[in-house]
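Give me the fold.
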Amino acid sequence: MSDLSDPTLSPGEAVCIIGAGISGLTAAKACCDRGLPYDQFEAGSAVGGLWRYENDNGRAAAYRTLHINSSKHNMELADFPVPDDFPTFGHHSDVLQYIEDYADAFNLRDGITFTTSVERVAPMDDDRWSVTLDTGETRTYGAVLVATGHHWKPRRPDFPGSFQGREMHASDYRRPEDFTGERVLVVGIGNSACDIAVDLCRVAEHVTISTRSSAWILPKYILGIPLDQWTGYWMEYLPWWIRRELFRLLVGLAVGNQERYGVPKPEHDLMQEHPTISEELLAQVGHGRVEVRPNVERRDGRAVQFEDGTAAAFDVLIYATGYEIQFPFVPDEVLSVENNRVAFYRYVVPPAWPGLYFLGLIQPLGSVFPLVERQAKWVAALLNGELALPPPEEMRRTIEDTVNRMKKRYHDSPRHTIQVDFWDYVHRMEREWQAGKRRAQTPRGRRS
């Protein structure tokens, strides 16, 4: 096997990019900027990924009322400023327009083969990669950039019993009027769960949220300033406990004690989980339009029994319980994901496999857009020889250190296996870039 620390493409080799959401598009632009030849494949008929409502690639889970939870200031790409008229918390159609404008500004559509899926990505003996398309064609590439995202394979709880009404995952939810006059139970209290509950409480007979450990419900604005602007670049230089106490003070001023609204205090401390951001949930709970109950114990016909011994009848169960990280086109001997855990250097590079990269496989406290742009530029600079990776054993040590650090930071859950703090990740990638430059100055053998 070749020296993984030098992933430079050999002459004549091309890159395969899988997906044409924001991760795939920033990857394509990064390749263009460095003169790297590439082919890009998208299962759907258009760009946009999960931000394209009713995307015909069958993987997008956007609902009609979806808005971003990160402000436009935090979402903006370095290479493409957000327009002045973009709302602070834009609708999914605003985000899609931004993505489409990005693709058009840099002429990226011409490099995409639409309505074409990748069926298999397999390593070859010479460190190249075999890519099989759903057309039956197989091509060879020097590197593969997987940019398919991780919000497409629903994760469902396995509650005892059976339910005689409708059951669905949040990924299948689209519009509130489909639930008019019904009694709905939403399982989960993350962002999608709260959005859907607020959506439905205006048309449903009644809406209940079931939660195992509750969550801190944060507003989109604090003192008129978007929430993510309070967790800016400067805060990452403060000790963790000081950051948490400052944030606790701000949230306390803006929200107060959420138990007074009817939402239980979480079992974990503030900022020990991915934030649940909702401007309306606490008010709707206070109005009695949304009720909060503990975790489901079992299903029994139309009735659902909860862990506190109470029960209620429902017409619909909606599981807002997250997603499984899966890449069905990558063989298990290359990548086997268990309990949503992956071991990638900087959340991008699997140390044992030269030329395979994963973009956007992070869950930040903030927008993913600027982070995947940084990832894409980093990978492109690796591929053209501007940067180099550390040896595999050093990458594995860094991965282990990262996992241990995040376990201390967040409570153990499949939801937090790819969690990153926005500015912390920015700083680490900046330092990684400089270290990669120094490594690249050391002569290394090239792949032949």
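The radius of gyration is 23 Å.
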